[in-house]
Amino acid sequence: MAGAALLVGLPLLGCSSNGKAVAVPSITSTPIPTVSAFPKTREGAAAFVEYYFMESNHATQSGDLSRLKALYDPSCSACSRYSTYVMTSFGGGGHIEGGQFNTFSTAAAPFEGNRVAVTVVGTQQAARVIAADGNVLQQAAAVARSELEVTVSWSGRHWLTIAISAVGKP
Predict the structure, then answer these.
(1) Long-range contacts of 21-26, Cβ-Cβ distance < 8 Å, separation of 24 or more
(2) DSSP label at 10?
(3) For 4, phi and psi rounded to 5 degrees?
(4) Cys staple from 48: which of 28, 32, 112, 159, with CB 3.0 to 4.6 Å?
(5) The pTM is what?
């Protein structure tokens, strides 16, 4: 399967922080990190996007979408497709093996109103969706280098993800 299809067509199998020294709130804190965690700055937007991918990885491993859903606007079609993918994969006792997205760089463009486009470069682990009976329902190959554009919007008190796409793809 092509890298873009893995990341966009299979609705982003998962993502995680790259270990940079970024102030990331505890995963047991409020569902939507506040201004102090991710301020309305380009750096705050980039840190928020890394946190989004960390929560995406959590959902990929656990099937729990509650924290991730608080981080995106319902208009984010890639986000909604990913949520459906996770719900379907975990439905009936299934699960996802692998699929983690590890970021190794983020760069935020200048603000356009309340929006910021953040370019993310990372790697995608191979993934398999396993049914409750052990049958493999779906597989995706690892992607050594993926480049995504994540658009986030300041909602007054916090960031929300509004779009995710592969760089160079609509």
Answers:
(1) 22/47, 22/50, 23/47, 24/50, 24/51, 24/54, 25/51
(2) T
(3) -65, -40
(4) 159
(5) 0.80
Cβ–Cβ < 8 Å for 131, 94: yes
Distance CA(13)–CA(57), nearest Å, equals 8
DSSP 72: B
Which sign, positive or negative, has the C-alpha torsion 104, 95, 55, 6?
positive
Q: Is the dihedral of CA 154, 157, 160, 162 positive or negative?
A: negative
pLDDT tens sequence for the chain (170 residues): 333 333 333 333 333 333 333 333 334 444 566 556 899 999 999 999 999 999 999 999 999 999 999 999 999 999 999 999 999 999 999 999 999 999 999 999 999 999 999 999 999 999 999 999 999 999 999 999 999 999 999 998 899 999 999 997 65
DSSP string for residues in 88-154: HHHGGG-EEEE--EEEEEEEEPPPBTTEEEEEEEEEE--EEEE-TTS-EEEEE--EEEEEEEEEEEE
Phi/psi at 29 (5° precision): -80, -165
